[in-house]
Amino acid sequence: MRLARYYRSTVGRAVMHTGLVLVMAQAGGAMTAQAASDPAKSGAANKAKSAESAPQKTTPYQQVIDYAALVSLARQRAKKDYKAPPPVGEALNKLSPNDYTRIGYKTDRALWADQKTDFKTLFYPPGSFYEHAVKIYTINDDKTVRSVDFDKHAFSYPSPAVAKKMPADAGFAGFKLTYPLNDADKQDELVSFLGASYFRALAADTRYGLSARGLAIDTGNTQKGEEFPNFTRFWLVEPASGAKSTTVYALLDSPSVAGAYKFVITPGKKTVTAVEATLFTRKAIDKLGIAPLTSMFTWGENSLTRLDDYRPEAHDSDGMLISAANGEWLWRPLINPQKLWMNQYDANDVRGFGLVQRDRDFANYQDMDYGYEKRPNAWVRPKGDWGKGHLELVEIPSDSEVNDNIDLYWVPSEPVKAGQRLHYAYDVSWSDAPIAPQSLGHVAASRIGMAAVVPGQQKNQVKIAIDFVGGSLTKLTDANSVKARVNAARDVTINNIRAVRNPHTNGWRLSFLVPTKALESPLDLRAYLADANGGGLTETWNYRLANP
Q1: From 472's CA, which of 24, 240, 255, 524 has a CA 20 to 30 Å away?
Q2: Cβ distance 352 to 460 under 8 Å?
Q3: Any transmembrane segments, and where (predicted)?
Q4: DSSP label at 252?
């Protein structure tokens, strides 16, 4: 059976890491399954609020009334040996992806359904790919902390047989917040926390695409493998009437680290998840990935090889963008490589970085089901001084668009030792709004393919055509006013370098040829447009070109 994409047909998605495929089934969207028989009585008793159990015995988790208390809890947790969460029962593990994703939480049972707030919460059951349950609590305005009890009758099931497999004490796999993003009278999915430390969000008029994670540890380590921390407990702060933001606390745990996370979620045309993370390390970590993003790129206009498909492109993000401390903006089109590529970029005191979907034209996708042109960008803006470090872009070979094969995260230069306390704060902005330097031109398209110098000649050169738009480029029409600048990381002959005005984009096209004989190993390239005096007119285009 074909694995469907997360929030696409609500079956699942494979998150690929260095040859290891970790299946992350993530259910969402409108649930259309028929409800199984529900012996629970109707009325207020069916509301999720009534499913909250009154605290009978105070536990350390019921003392988490704010972020400071959660930080204290994470500190104490890190002093103890890591204990993996218990797995769910065999019956749930054997649920098929199709059956699992047809289990839906009833909207009339939503948390805060009977309160005057635009935020509501629906829950996911464990099962199928989700082998562990998480604990969820609420924090009311009087600082009362209550556990949200699992009630199997709050879910609808595709059949009585599936309903019978759900234990009465199964627990939750995660949750999603809803909010009227597009219509004041309709609840839309806003953000989802489901699986390991994954979360993702929507802005108005967007569809789910890439994900974020709380933390990445040893991504790309082919010897001992990647460590996946988990959010094991969540605290949902009850929003006040008319509130425009809502707060979620999360406890992160793994063999190497325990952490306290605070998420302040503000929906809109640009939805912002403001993240604060305090980490306590149990042991040294070879590579710590901060503010990780995960996406999919299978093929695009820059792909020399692609799957046999009627669609021109298929990707959730088409490039990585970096705003460096020195004022440079760097755009790196994504690649589906033939083997694993690990790319590092200096990012001391980085201003911002993210995975971006710049191509918003349906004609370039021709996919009426998946709506790639509506995938949101995710832009990370660090707060405070992150210090010295680098960004790492991981690109993993993939033969299917069901796989998440792109990772991006920031890595501190200082070694991470056991017993450390680390703190990071940043915003993740989700939207379909353009992200580009205001005063500079930016890359609108990167087209790459084989080219012959003259008709009939063997195609032994690769042609690169980069369309730059915006900034002052719209006003420049003289051929002598714009200069092409192309550099390679090693001594390679690059031919036919030129910049010409493109009347179709109201910008300029930079193009050049690279001999295929120069591509015995991948070639790193940089290119931009300069004015007559050598001053930069555009962001910097960066690319790793490989032999097709």
Answers
A1: 524
A2: no
A3: none
A4: E
CA nearest to 383, candidates 295, 234, 277: 277
Q: What is the pLDDT of residue 13?
A: 52
Sign of CA dihedral 98, 19, 233, 59: positive
CATH homologous superfamily of 442-545: Immunoglobulins (2.60.40.10)
Over 50: is that where the pLDDT of 62 sits? yes
Shared fold status for 67-431 and 442-545: no
Residue 307 confidence (pLDDT): 73
User: Above 90 in pLDDT, residue 224?
Assistant: no
If you search the block for the tokens 């492109």, which residue do you land on?
Answer: 313
Q: 373 — phi, psi (to 5°)?
A: -70, -10
Task: Give CA separation, 183 vs 113, 326, 496, in Å.
Answer: 17, 42, 52
Which are the contacts of 68, defined by CB distance < 8 A and separation ≥ 6? none
Q: Considering the entire predicted model, what is its pTM? A: 0.89
What are phi and psi for residue 161, nearest 5 degrees? -65, -40
Q: Which two tokens stand for residue 104?
A: 């839906």
pLDDT digits (tens, 9 = 90+) for 482-527: 999 999 999 999 999 999 999 999 999 999 999 999 999 999 999 9
How far are the Cα atoms of 29, 255, 291, 487 from residue 283, in angstroms, in the given order? 39, 8, 20, 42
Q: Collect all residues with Cβ–Cβ distance below 8 Å to 491 and sequence separation of at least 6.
A: none
Mean pLDDT on 182-204: 96
How far apart (Å, rounded) are the C-alpha atoms in residues 133 and 147? 14
What is the C-alpha separation between 215 and 346, in angstroms, rounded? 20
Centroid of chain to Cα 80:
31
**Architecture in CATH for domain 67-431:** Distorted Sandwich (2.70)
Spell out the domain ranges in the chain: 67-431, 442-545
Take residue 198 and report the two structure tokens written for it.
Answer: 């994954």
- pLDDT tens string 71-87: 999 999 999 999 999 88
